[in-house]
Design brief:
The structure is a single chain. Helix content is 20%, strand content 34%. The two termini are 47 Å apart. The protein has four helices and seven strands, in the order H-H-E-H-E-E-H-E-E-E-E. The strands form two sheets. A five-stranded antiparallel β-sheet has the order 1-4-5-6-7. A two-stranded antiparallel ribbon has the order 2-3. The longest helix is centred in the N-terminal third of the chain and has 16 residues. It is of the alpha+beta class and 179 residues long. The protein has one domain. A hairpin with a 4-residue loop joins strand 4 and strand 5.
């Protein structure tokens, strides 16, 4: 009888603790999103983007060719051309964007690092998880983006408890009242 009581107590404790989101479970659900590319759109037909390239050495180093002469009424004519040297930084860009003169380029790579905190909210049914990522392999195109690439970044992920366990959710979920 004593053994049965211990087993029942152990099962009760395990079932209760499974409702808490652990750091391990949060990491397991976040990690599949990484590594990922940090990208930036280059507007090849926009003279304003040409101006961003001029103070850099991207043309001198052979990543791009800049057509500096801006032709009046030349909208939709490309001014920025990517060379073979830049091919490894060019990312897949939707056809609609390409037809508008937009090319997405890799600026850096982002890797999951660690869970730094788990905060349970809304009666244990929701959670906010803070974690850090590491930015590596910064590309030459980072200098024309408006992004400030730092070595380590802090991020947040939002979770909800469903009948089958914890799931990542969009922080703009109207049911999320965590902050």
């Amino acid at each position: 009888m004593k053994t049965l009581s211990i087993i029942v107590l152990a099962l009760f404790l395990v079932s209760c603790s499974s409702k808490n989101l652990t750091r391990g479970k949060a990491a397991e659900l976040i990690q599949p999103k990484y590594p990922r590319n940090i990208d930036w759109p280059i507007f090849t037909t926009d003279p304003k983007d040409v101006i961003k390239f001029l103070p850099t050495k991207l043309e001198e180093e052979g990543y791009v060719i800049i057509k500096e002469k801006i032709v009046e009424g030349g909208w939709r004519r490309p001014y920025i051309f990517f060379t073979d040297k830049s091919k490894s930084y060019l990312l897949e860009t939707p056809e609609y964007d390409r037809s508008s003169g937009i090319q997405r380029v890799k600026v850096a790579e982002q890797y999951f690092s660690e869970i730094t905190g788990v905060r349970m909210v809304k009666d244990g049914q929701k959670a906010i998880v803070e974690y850090s990522v590491i930015n590596k392999n910064v590309t030459p195109f980072a200098q024309v983006s408006a992004l400030k690439i730092v070595p380590t970044e802090n991020c947040k992920a939002y979770f909800a408890l469903y009948d089958d366990g914890w799931r990542l959710i969009d922080k703009f979920d109207p049911d999320f009242k965590g902050e």
